[in-house]
Amino acid sequence: MVTRRWLPALLLCGIALPAWAQDRSITLASTTSTEQSGLFGHVLPIFARDTGITVRVVALGTGQALDVGRRGDADALLVHDQAAEERFVAEGHGGPRRQVMYNDFVLVGPGTDPAHIAETHDVAAALLRIAAARAPFISRGDRSGTHAAELRLWQQAGADPVTGRGQWYREVGQGMGPALNTAAAQNAYALTDRGTWLAFRNRQDLRILVAGDTRLLNQYGVLAVSPQRHPHVKAAEAQAFIGWITGPAGQAAIAGYRIHGEQLFFPNAGSPG
Amino acid sequence: MDVQDLGSAFVAAMALVRHGDPDMLAILGLSLRVSLAALGIAALVGLPLGALLAVARFPGRRAVVVALNALMGLPPVVAGLMIYLLLSRSGPLGAWGLLFTPQAMVIAQAVLITPILAALSRQVLEALWEEYAETLRSFGAGPWRAVPTLLWDGRFALLTVLLAGFGRASAEVGAVILVGGNIEGATRTMTTAIALETSKGDLPLALALGLVLMVIVLGVNALAQLLRDAALRRAG
Amino acid sequence: MLPIEAEALSYAAGGVAILQDVSLRIEAGPPLLILGPNGAGKSVLLRLLHGLLRPGRGRITPEAPTRGAMVFQRPVLLRRSVGANIRYPLALAGLPWAERRRRAAAALEEVGLAALADRPARRLSGGEQQRLALARAAALAPPVLFLDEPCASLDPAATRAVEEIIAGIAARGTKIVMTTHDLGQARRLAGEVVFLHRGRVVEAGPARPFFNGPASAEAAAFLQGDLLW
């Protein structure tokens, strides 16, 4: 018990590190799409001003973020894979799940569009054309929310891209940005959330080819990690965050975030999930 | 990425430095503090360990040396993952609450570079010990007493060892992004910021940050070299 | 410490016998010079007597980790100042700080290096380095001082300076035990002689009779400058 107190204290003393832990702060495990699109940079300062609570964001894939929550290493989660979120709640790791906002996924690809998917607005048809043409497609392959959505879309289209694995179907196992960097370099198709796409700078020849299909809806949910499972979590602050982001102030802040005049996320906490 | 991007990266790097961008300065400051703290801890452990291995003869010594040399090549992600599992709230040291803090990054970097400092200092000090051994034994100093002597008399060579450790620590990204979480304003370092900007496709900014980091590391090396030369002139 | 008694020492390295059945007695008195052709085992004998090597057979009394102090043919100076080089073994010997200062200053004065006390030791010339090594050993005030070819790589002027220092140390009562291949130097310094040949003691005794009329054919040939092996 003595060393348990003593060692971190030693680490602290020897090292003049800044006070990283403000009195009131929570750790939010979230997705690369929300972080890299710049949404948090816009919304969280408003929350801090309103409540005095700092939110420290660890941006991961949804699957990883849920794992961080399971281990008790975050106080709240903001992710986008409803099925996985409901499993998390059912297993008693936290919850209840509240829906926060949505945006949409888009299929991007090279301007040359070798599979001719720009002609259709049906995402299932577009995926079938890509598979038929054996045109290069970059998959996240990282258990993220976008990856889960992509697999769901393939299933709905009735195609199994795994047969093309290693050839035209390429799983990078990385975040959205690196996957887009890869797609740009290889003139490949990819599924991305619109927020990351709008903030993404290295597009080269990539452009949006399919968008607007209702099946491309990208719903975000928010959950608190269970204080019963993990007594150290900052339950009150986490609840304050969830209440705020799903309340009028937070919803207005989300609606107010724009890139080049374009709204990235659409608050929908009020509507039934 | 083409030549034009390189040019704009250079321009962006100049702009970052000229305007003293406060976010970047904070990130830079954290990077230096974390790496220097890790270097300090690693030096406290690694240099005496290297000196001991240079002078001591015991069964299994070769095995320890081989293990240290192998640990020099420990993939940072593996080290980071082990520390992540240790420091996680569900891990054995979870009660410390250190995951996603600068301290966790210090631990990760220290774990990564301690074998480097120990292995390199062993090499450097073994040569010195070969030269000193007979004289020190003549003075009645055994291997244990020789350790501080070697560390002091090898100080100029050890400075190079420390710089190698610092370089590795400050360039590291795989472990610190895992255990630090790349949290803006808390655990974002130069290398994790570079990784983030690369993800966002802002390659010129990523490269600009990389240039700044390189200049800083170069500056630290130059400063150390100057100090070494000055001290060498006085002390031989 | 004195007398040091070596009885029937044998020493071998890598299966090659270097010393065989060497017995000698070191008593207080004038310098003892160990002479003999190259490869006779002079350096090994010094190291055995000082304690750096353990004999394969035989024994040396008194038993101790090391006996006296030693200066090597090529002195190893610490990467420190001239003064710090002298103070280092004094600190190991457990002398208090002030006493270390006092002795270091006196020792440097004696070997004419007082003005260089703050210089890096390893920047000194070869002769200065050997004088510093002598001062460093002498500052310990050892009862016996072993010197292994201390002038082997020095020019005549430096050799003369080192010999004067050695004579001074001997005059203050420290027993000098020294190897050399320089017969002139041996004649100048020796009070006693041990003549080694092929790892054995061939002659031992006072210096003057040895140089005037050696008893053995080997020593006679050696003194005439013949090659011995």
Automatic annotation (TrEMBL), chain A:
Database matches in Gene3D superfamilies:
Periplasmic binding protein-like II (3.40.190.10)
Per the UniProt entry, the signal peptide is 1-21
Q: Does the keyword Signal apply?
A: yes
Q: Report domain PBP positions.
A: 20-247
Please give the InterPro entries that the UniProt record associates with this protein. ABC-Tungstate_binding, PBP_domain
Q: Which UniProt keywords apply?
A: Signal
**PANTHER family according to UniProt:** EXTRACELLULAR TUNGSTATE BINDING PROTEIN
**Protein known as:** Tungstate transport system substrate-binding protein
State the organism named in the record.
Answer: Belnapia rosea
TrEMBL record, chain B:
UniProt KW keywords: Membrane, Transmembrane, Transmembrane helix, Transport
Places the protein is found: Cell membrane
* ABC transmembrane type-1 domain: residues covered: 28-224
Q: Which GO terms describe its biological process?
A: transmembrane transport
Name the membrane topology term.
Answer: Multi-pass membrane protein
Residue stretches spanning the membrane: 36-56, 63-87, 93-120, 156-183, 203-224
The main place the protein resides is: membrane
Write down any Gene Ontology CC term. Answer: plasma membrane
Q: Report the superkingdom from the record.
A: Bacteria
Where is the signal peptide, in residue numbers? none
Q: Name the InterPro entries for this protein.
A: ABC_perm_TupB-like, MetI-like, MetI-like_sf
Read off the PROSITE patterns from this record: ABC_TM1
Family matches, as Gene3D superfamilies: MetI-like
PANTHER family registered for this protein in UniProt = PERMEASE COMPONENT OF TUNGSTATE ABC TRANSPORTER (PTHR43632)
Q: Which family does it belong to?
A: Belongs to the binding-protein-dependent transport system permease family.
* Name of the protein: Tungstate transport system permease protein
Output the lineage of the source organism: Bacteria, Pseudomonadati, Pseudomonadota, Alphaproteobacteria, Acetobacterales
From TrEMBL, chain C:
Identify the GO cellular component terms for this protein.
plasma membrane
Q: Which PROSITE patterns match?
A: ABC_TRANSPORTER_1, ABC_TRANSPORTER_2
Q: Name one GO molecular function term.
A: ATP hydrolysis activity
- Can you tell which superkingdom this protein's organism belongs to? Bacteria
Q: Where is the ABC transporter domain?
A: 4-223
**Pfam (any one):** ABC_tran
Q: Which UniProt keywords apply?
A: ATP-binding, Nucleotide-binding
Q: What is this protein called?
A: Amino acid ABC transporter ATP-binding protein, PAAT family
